[in-house]
Sequence to fold (703 residues):
Amino acid sequence: MESKTLDGLMQPKSVAVVGASSQPGKIGYTVVDNLIKSGYEGKIYPINPKAADILGIKAYPSVLAVPDEIDAAAITVPASLVEQAAEECGKKGVKALIIITSGFSEVGNRDLEDRIVAIARRYNMRILGPNIVGTLSNSQKLNASFAPFLPLTGKATLISQSGALLIAMDASTYIRRVGFEKLISIGNMSDVDFADIITWLDDDPNTTCVSLYIEGFRDGRKFMDACRRAHKPIIALKSGVSSHGAAAAASHTGSLAGAAKVYGAAFQQAGVVQASDLDNLFDRTLALSLQPPMKGDNLLIITNGGGVGVLATDSAERYGLPLQFAPQDLRDELKKHMPEFGSAKNPVDLTGMAGRDWYEDSIRFAFAHPWVDGLVVLYCETSLTDPVDIAYGIKKAIDESGVKDKPVTVSFVGGEQSEKATRWLVEQGIPTYSAPDLAVNALAALREYAIMQQMLAETNEPCLDVNKAQALEVIGRARADGRDSLTEIEAKQVFAAYGLPVTKTQLAKNEEEAVELAKAIGFPIVMKIVSPDILHKSDAGGVKVNIKDEAGVREAYRTILNNAKAYKADARIHGIAIQEMAPWGTEVILGSVNDATFGPTMMFGLGGIFVEVLKDVTFRVAPVAEGQALRMLSEIRGAPILAGVRGEKPRDRQAMAATICRYSSMIVDLAEEISESDANPVLVYEEGKGVRVADARIILKKK
Ligand code: ADP
Ligand code: MG
Fold:
């Protein structure tokens, strides 16, 4: 959808209010009143069949009676009347409906909502809502909502899926001093969704950062595409992080893929910065809307107090920006602007004796120094200095440094004077906070944004050496057999068709065949039950490893069959798999689910207890590019095990990442067929020695 089609909604030249009322307390009154009070300079058309005028503005019985064009119509009539209102707006040529009315899909009334969307499509109208507060814009002086006033002016635009939260946030912008250009209530997203608005905002000169409050949506891929294409930072707060709703599933992956984890993965891959709660959303939005991205890892902290300096140092490590000592030439220069007992290492401690001059001189020099990628300035209120004067000095030094492409954040800890200084600095475009942790966290957001932008530039190398036809043939045979899961042997055939390094395995239908195959493959071997009715083979006593000779094969053959029959008397048994025994390696799990919002999604984690108990796994929406795959390996808690601990050699992470990429291409290519899958375990060997897939499982989509 072209972004221009939202112009009527985002910058209307005229707004009708359908259901306008002269009765205070009615939403139809509030919206007209808000349009007037916000100073909206376009035309306002109250629509009411009974009133001649509303709040002093001429009213019309229907939009059809309005003599001029109408860009947007705010709909406030009861749900039962919305269909008719939409129809009339369509006839009138209205470009966008802002449907404030509730009582649609959010209460199960989807049919009515669908009918209204159909009307809108017929007339080429866009719909914001229904079930929304409305939309507010400072640059347009437009308050087409029932929120009481426009937010504090600023450069961020907030899109909120919760109306109540939007009203509350509107009011709190004045207390928090975080300014917004627009607040948009998005409601049921019957038509216009996050992606549409993000795309429109990318061309909006008044918006420098897009801030999202998300509860959940359907078209995850469209959202990711819009975010990837955006040229300005996007930050999201996603609520509903409990794993409630993760369906009981046949595979590990299904049960581990809580919605929050998959959203988190999608944000990462789409370059969307995340916020941990409401405060954090405001704090990070402020920095992202005012400062440029942080292009490298070198953070310098300048402080007048050791305490706040140490606190900020702790925070820096927590948020992925561990401090490094400043280079010698920078230290030498800084030493000139502090007493003998100060420190120029990092944090740079100007000491409590620091006045405005020292701050100015050190900031001017340090900010411009090529080693510094980002700066955090801390100030503890002292009896020697005036916070406001220090603030002036900070601003002046930053300006005089001439630096425009590096970020700075500030924290003033103190009383009323510090608060005054904070406000002033924020008005000057310098994000300033009441605690060192907040300043560091905000700077980290700018670093996260830069890192993700860099990763977005990566593309997936297409895997050309795949044999989809062979995979489909294996799947087709299982389906013809009336099954919706593959046996390990079949799953490995599919994996092999996509070039995954599976252990060699063949089916023996009787004991003699088992002996033959074992000799052909070469001892030691592994033997496993092959039954479509036994998905977890070890549970059924269906796996024997390290079989060294013919006698062992014969014994294992009988034991496995007996165990399987004892486990499930009526299990269909295809035979016994005779399998090459992979040497010992670090066990990891790969898996996939078909997420309702994002489609094929990959999981990676360490095997065994790490999966079962610690749920130490991480996700990415497929396909996964190599850089992201490497990040998956390093972001699990068990990452040091792959890196090599206690004298062990590092594991072959490159091969593991390549396997993740390949696996992810497979689940995208076979998205129509595969519902869930896993490779558990995959054995990872030391660097240069690759990986082997020892077990494979595929659950098919029901057809
Ligand atoms: P299950 O259906 O119970 O998951 P697996 O095929 O994963 O059965 O086998 C159980 C365990 O046996 C694996 O976790 C692994 O430790 C070991 N194993 C299975 N196949 C092989 C193999 N080909 N080489 C080495 N070890 C194997
Ligand atoms: Mg297994």
About this structure: The pocket of magnesium ion (ligand 2) is lined by residues 680, 695 (CB under 6 Å). Residues 244-250 have pLDDT under 50 and may be disordered.
